[in-house]
Design goal:
- Strand 2 and strand 3 form a beta hairpin.
- The protein has helices spanning 41-49, 98-118, 151-159, 161-164, and strands at 11-15, 18-22, 29-31, 71-73, 85-87, 94-96, 166-170, 173-192, 198-215, 224-231, 237-239, 243-245.
- The protein contains four helices and twelve strands.
- It is elongated and about 60 Å long.
Length: 249
Amino acid sequence: MLCPNCSEMMKSDYYDGQYVSHCSSCGASFFEANGINRITFDTASKLSADKYRNVISPAEKLCPKDFTPFNALSNTEAIPSNLVLFECPTCGGVFAYPSDLVKFKKAQGAKIDYFKTWERPFASVHSVLVIFVILVLSAATILTFNTIQNRTSVSSEASDLFKSLTIIQSGHYRILSFRTSTPLKSQIIITNNRDGSRIFKDISKEFSKYHQLVLTDLDEKTPYSYEIVLSDKNGNKIKTGTRRLVLTR
């Protein structure tokens, strides 16, 4: 895979639970759809420092995966005006210059602090178009439930939650988010797999289509699993399946 900026060979490596293509020549990086939201600020800084020259080519930038021309993104709800990211309209991948990558992750960290203080959502670069407002940082995803009155069908749909639920990390924050097509209450049950203790946290205390939670008090050295409980206005409750909660820095 060649760098869209300097045409040197990019190396694919594993960072924060995903593969990132990085150019050690100019320091630019290419992320799979929504991948830029998942890396930490420390990783972004490390990637940006890995270069031996500063160069920004004026040539048209093409996606290194499918050679589709990138869309330049700047001055949006998710991206500050002092930086530019490039997104592929075909695969949803995002290409970033080294300095812009660091600026973007700083902006995301500031957004998280804003959310923590004011309990308001903010945008992240989405996997298809920068699409806005899904959940603090980020990121990302829409879950559709037809109705929760039929427990059999809801059980099936609840199991599909993990296909769209997103957990984004920035520093020591982990931000969980998803949407539902009908207003529901939601709760997460986190199990300490070492001693069996459980933590119950409300995601949405009131009926809402928009569900988000910031996790800050979990030990990275402790193995956890989690499940989500959904409740409708008739009092019906459905639990999703259990998944491992991955905590990385």
